[in-house]
């Protein structure tokens, strides 16, 4: 007999969903969280803070209104770090309160401290003061997430040279910012700061970035960034990062160029937060980035009663997918059949402008040798776009000319991360171009772009 039916290590999206699912099934569950408050990376340093900062920046800068009133338009003239942080704290407090209430009303127990295995069913919880508590669980879910990758050659100081966990607590807005790593985090922060008129340089060692996104969208996105004076340094390896006597940060690039900035954000990936867990005691191995391998359907590790979910299992490392992985793990652990997830999930990149995509890119369709046609809609051609003053934004849909099935939807621009779900539903329900041709969409909406892009593809597919 164990103390709990399930012990969950970590209270991020996967841990929280798993815990509530266990409680709903009438089981006893303990969530162990080493942070002072529940919520995980998602609530405290990742998803919610970055999206709140973005929203605050767009609101205070008047970004969405500049199409009408010009580039000089501002809602608030002098935007400081305190303006950004104040709203952040309010949102985070609210998120934590909601989560704590969900836990308490569902009877989920929580323990504050760092968990480590002392046996396959045995967990030690070490509090900040060093007190140790021992508990056992019939099933255990590892939902410990990741932490930023911090190589030795980066002189992090928590003030001007920051990782992505630290940037949400910045004390002063820089006038210039170098961002190293053009992954999702780097691109989101680079464009958010650029919307505040900070001079941003985005540095990436590879010649391309966000390679999972359709190339045509990336081309359009790069054009918008360059138009806004975001300096893109692609194919530029970092040789060294130095602090100059002036206090500026100088990044030496392998092509001989130097980037000088007030602040530097290093965002070159994350590593599994597994080092403290003593996983070898439970018989579990991790890869070079601290990640755990699981069965993709059941979420079981190589030790069947121990599950892992969320960022610690690697791709796709999203809060959205993590939540579902946690729920599936809990269901399987408690005897409910697990099913493979639907084929297509959406990516939402909250850059300025937003990017959202689901299904196959044009490059993937070509690689597979599927005959296809494309439909494009520009937001500036929709009536809602006129009303909103949009000068940019596009939707691209790809259809099979053999089956008429929708193969992929790719959106760049305002509302992309919300709009994508229409396309996702049609994709997962195996719908065809007929859905877009035959259905009526609300007018005036940006969703009308689906109709326009559908008709655009249909005109070419039916042309004799
Ligand atoms: C800047 C940024 C922006 C992001 N934006 C988005 C977005 O817009 N949309 C999206 O879908 N995803 C986004 N993500 C990804 C998303 O945050 C993660 O996919 C998600 O948080 C992973 O959830 P998780 O369940 O793995 O747990 P995490 O949120 O990683 O939390 C893990 C928790 O486990 C705790 N923990 C670790 N080790 C132990 C231990 N030994 N004992 C006790 N507790 C422990 C940690 O303290 C932490 O609280 C973003 C990430 C970052 C960094
Ligand atoms: N909107 C969202 O869904 C969202 C937002 C932010 C983060 N996330 C998740 O967080 C995770 C981590 O994001 P990320 O952007 O840090 O990682 P990433 O692995 O996606 O990107 C890292 C980038 O840094 C580059 N890089 C790697 N090593 C480097 C080095 N030594 N020097 C310079 N550049 C280097 C890589 O080529 C890559 O382009 C991702 O898996 C992502 O899914 C999701």
Automatic annotation (TrEMBL):
One Pfam short name: Pyr_redox_2
Top-level taxon: Bacteria
Localization: Cytoplasm
Keyword list, A-Z: Cytoplasm, FAD, Flavoprotein, NAD, NADP, Oxidoreductase
Stretches assigned to the FAD/NAD(P)-binding domain: 4-326
Family, per entry: Belongs to the class-I pyridine nucleotide-disulfide oxidoreductase family.
Role this protein plays: Conversion of NADPH, generated by peripheral catabolic pathways, to NADH, which can enter the respiratory chain for energy generation.
Protein name: Soluble pyridine nucleotide transhydrogenase
Annotated source species: Tardiphaga alba
């Amino acid at each position: 007999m164990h103390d709990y039916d399930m012990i969950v290590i970590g209270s991020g999206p996967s841990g929280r969903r798993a815990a509530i699912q266990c409680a709903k099934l009438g089981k006893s569950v303990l969530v162990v969280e080493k942070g002072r408050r529940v919520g995980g990376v998602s609530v405290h340093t990742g998803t919610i803070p970055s999206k709140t900062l973005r929203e605050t920046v767009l609101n205070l800068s008047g970004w969405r209104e500049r199409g009408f009133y010009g580039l000089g338009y501002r809602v608030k003239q002098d935007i400081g770090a305190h303006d950004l942080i104040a709203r952040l704290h309010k949102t985070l407090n609210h998120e934590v309160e909601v989560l704590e209430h969900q836990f308490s009303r569902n009877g989920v127990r929580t323990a504050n401290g760092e968990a480590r295995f002392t046996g396959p069913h045995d967990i030690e919880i070490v509090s900040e003061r060093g007190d140790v508590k021992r508990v056992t669980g019939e099933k255990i879910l590892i939902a410990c997430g990741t932490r930023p990758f911090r190589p030795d050659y980066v002189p992090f100081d928590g003030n001007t040279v920051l990782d992505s966990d630290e940037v949400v607590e910045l004390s002063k807005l820089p006038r210039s910012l170098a961002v190293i790593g053009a992954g999702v985090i780097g691109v989101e922060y680079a464009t958010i700061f650029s919307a505040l008129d900070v001079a941003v340089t985005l540095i990436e060692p590879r010649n391309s970035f966000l390679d999972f996104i359709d190339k045509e969208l990336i081309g359009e996105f790069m054009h918008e960034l360059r138009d806004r004076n975001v300096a893109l340094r692609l194919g530029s390896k970092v040789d060294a990062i130095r602090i100059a006597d002036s206090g500026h940060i100088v990044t030496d690039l392998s092509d001989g160029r130097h980037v000088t900035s007030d602040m530097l954000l290093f965002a070159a990936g994350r590593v599994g937060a597994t080092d403290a867990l003593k996983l070898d005691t439970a018989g579990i191995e991790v890869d070079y980035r601290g990640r755990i391998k699981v069965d993709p359907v059941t979420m079981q590790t190589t030790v069947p009663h121990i599950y892992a979910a969320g960022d610690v299992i690697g791709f796709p490392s999203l809060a959205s997918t993590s939540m579902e992985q946690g729920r599936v793990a809990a269901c399987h652990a408690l005897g409910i059949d697990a099913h493979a997830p639907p084929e297509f999930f959406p990516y939402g990149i909250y850059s300025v402008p937003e990017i959202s995509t689901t299904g196959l890119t044009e490059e993937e369709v070509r690689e597979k040798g599927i005959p296809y046609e494309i439909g494009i809609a520009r937001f500036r051609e929709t009536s809602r776009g006129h009303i909103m003053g949009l000068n940019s934004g596009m939707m691209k849909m790809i259809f099979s000319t053999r089956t008429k099935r929708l193969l992929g939807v790719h959106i760049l621009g305002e509302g992309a991360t919300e709009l994508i779900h229409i396309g996702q539903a049609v994709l997962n329900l195996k719908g065809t171009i007929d859905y877009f041709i035959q259905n009526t969409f609300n007018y005036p909406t940006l969703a009308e772009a689906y109709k326009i892009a559908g008709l655009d593809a249909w005109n070419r597919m039916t042309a004799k």
